[in-house]
């Protein structure tokens, strides 16, 4: 590969990247959407974790998540969106840690989603592969 060239993505890698990203985006849109409506399950879980139970707070979190997700979906801002989603998911992990929830099903769920976000972006975007080369051929 020439210096400064961005590695290209094979068809199967790109498809796998879009599948991983699509799964993460689908969950984030669902989660943000139910926070905008604030259904009773959202209010109950926010109270359980010690957050304010006002509709405005839930809507603010939902709107923030949807904006971060939209930035991730748009190719020009996908890296910024991934960084912001990572921060959001980090807050979710800390919240689960404080609550003492089960490790693999609840606590690490934000980590799993983060892996989907970054794994999908890595597989579909040559800029990320150029930045973080796992393969000796990409260096």
UniProtKB/TrEMBL annotation:
Membrane topology: Multi-pass membrane protein
Transmembrane segments: 15-37, 57-74, 79-97, 103-123
Record key words, sorted: Membrane, Transmembrane, Transmembrane helix
Any Pfam family: DoxX_2
Subcellular location(s) per record: Membrane
Matches recorded under InterPro entries: DoxX (IPR032808)
GO CC annotation terms, alphabetical: membrane
Keyword Membrane: yes
Name of this chain's protein: DoxX family protein
């Amino acid at each position: 590969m020439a210096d400064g060239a961005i590695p290209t993505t094979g068809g199967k890698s790109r498809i796998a990247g879009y599948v991983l990203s699509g799964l993460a985006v689908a969950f984030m849109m669902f989660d943000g959407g139910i926070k905008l409506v604030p259904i009773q399950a959202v209010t109950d879980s926010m109270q359980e974790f010690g957050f304010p139970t006002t509709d405005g707070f839930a809507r603010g979190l939902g709107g923030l998540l949807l904006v971060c997700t939209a930035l991730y979906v748009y190719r020009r801002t996908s890296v910024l969106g991934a960084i912001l989603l990572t921060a959001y998911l980090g807050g979710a992990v800390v919240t689960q840690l404080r609550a003492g929830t089960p490790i693999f099903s609840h606590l690490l769920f934000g980590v799993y989603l983060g892996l989907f976000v970054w794994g999908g972006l890595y597989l579909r975007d040559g800029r990320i592969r150029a930045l973080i080369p796992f393969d000796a051929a990409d260096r």
